[in-house]
């Protein structure tokens, strides 16, 4: 009988269910990262399959076969997996899944908000380079709004109150000030960047360059 979410209830600790799982589209291209909890939902809905990478070889499992081999994995590869305890048996948490019907890469734009802006600039004033508490930082328009400067990733930076007051309604060049770095939109949401341990990355590196360690976690 096919195992369903109600027949195979997940009773693992929250930390295990929140572990990262890399999602590939049908063309085997990495698209995003989801939690183990979300990955099992996609597997039980039959819209995804598990991809296991073993010494450079790919093995593909649907949810039934993945659960069926859990006993062998537990016997011979217990230390190689994180385990999800279900009502019937422990099941290995997948590290990579592949969507069986999706080929389009998702479009995503990092939300421009105060939290993400401060995270991008690491709470550092972009003029003096010092780090401050959020309460001591303000947001500065590189090109002042009075000069047509807009609210964009490329025109907003963190500035301490002293530097912001010194700059006033001038450009950095007019104020004799220099930006620590050129402001730009981050590639991933800086407030939700994900650090993965080395064991996860060993399985992911077939599909990702090391520069993509910090990818967005989306449910």
Description:
- The protein is an alpha+beta fold.
- It has two domains: 14-107 and 192-212, no CATH class; 114-175, DNA Binding (I), subunit A (Orthogonal Bundle).
- The chain has helices at 14-17, 36-44, 63-68, 70-76, 114-120, 161-167, 172-175, 198-204, and strands spanning 20-24, 30-35, 48-54, 57-61, 83-85, 90-92, 96-99, 137-141, 156-160.
- The protein has a five-stranded mixed sheet with strand order 2-1-7-3-4. It has a two-stranded antiparallel sheet with strand order 5-6.
- The protein is elongated, with a radius of gyration of 23 Å.
- Residues 1-13 and 210-219 have low confidence and may be disordered.
Extended strand count: 9
Query: How many domain modules?
Result: 2
Uncertain ranges: 1-13, 210-219
Helix content: 10-25%
What would you call the structural class? Answer: alpha+beta
Radius of gyration: 23 Å
Beta content comes to 15-25%
Brief synopsis:
The protein has 219 residues and is of the alpha+beta class.
Highlighted features:
single chain, 219 residues, alpha+beta, DNA Binding (I), subunit A, 5-stranded mixed β-sheet, 8 helices, 20% strand, elongated, disordered N terminus, disordered C terminus
